Amino acid sequence: MTLATILAPLLALCIVARGIGFLPALGVTTAAAMLVEGLDPLQQVGAGLAVAFAVGPVWFLSFYQQDSAREHGGPAIPFLALGLMVVLMLASTRPGLPSFPAGLCVLLAGLVAVTCRQSMVWQWAGLLTCVQGVLLAGVLQHQVMVVGAATLAGMLIALLGGLCVHRMRPRIAVVRASGKQEARKRAKGRPKEPISRLGTASGAPSPDYVPKPPRQFDQEADEA
């Protein structure tokens, strides 16, 4: 068992705990676990699909606004069960013991994320984690039908998840454009300060203003 196959379930646990941000790392690690044992066409195709299903959704989400609501923690029993499975997988690396499949650990971690989390993006990450686990198990066992089924499932999950994100979340470019339009409307609708006859709006005298001479008294009143 290689280091990549050991790290893949640990990254799947990180997705269960922290969300979709660890999905690209899981995809790259899964691809590395597939390519370590050989460079057969099945392994190359599986590695490419693992990276595509991991990096594509995260790149797609970067164009949409993030959800401000925080996800509440789920029950601790599934996390303890997953931790026990990882311990069993690490213990099976010793010679003479039956190997515990890493793909099964990744698959169950994705199911835990779907079951224990309520956020749409979190559940989308859980389903994509399940696809990663099935791809890893199919490539390591050289099962072409399993890899084909995982490919179809991954394409369907990626498409439906992308449509849900597009409907539920606003795009960042649209939010920024609407903010700029509101700022322009506020600037246009702001009332202007009245300009006095003797100067500018601030009350300071205008540079073109020339003071008038003082008013002279009536000459007849002075002679009197």
Main features:
224 residues, mainly alpha, 9 helices, 67% helix
Secondary structure: elements and pairs:
Layout: H1 3-18, H2 23-36, H3 41-61, H4 76-91, H5 102-116, H6 120-140, H7 144-168, H8 172-189, H9 219-223
Helix pairs in contact: 1-2, 1-4, 1-5, 2-3, 2-6, 3-6, 3-7, 4-5, 5-6, 6-7
Summarize the structure.
The protein has 224 residues and is mainly alpha-helical. The protein contains nine helices and no strands.
3D structure, described in words:
By secondary structure, the chain is mainly α. Helix 1 runs antiparallel to helix 2. It is elongated and about 70 Å long.
Class based on secondary structure composition and strand pairing: mainly alpha
Rg, alpha carbons: 34 Å
Portion in helices: 55-70%
| Overall mean confidence score, pLDDT | 75
Provide the low-confidence segments as ranges. 197-202
> H/E element string?
HHHHHHHHH
Q: Based on CA inertia axes, which overall geometry fits?
A: elongated
Biggest beta-sheet profile: none
Q: Using DSSP, what is the number of strands?
A: 0
Helix segment tally: 9
> Beta-sheet strand percentage?
under 5%
Cα(first) to Cα(last) distance is 124 Å
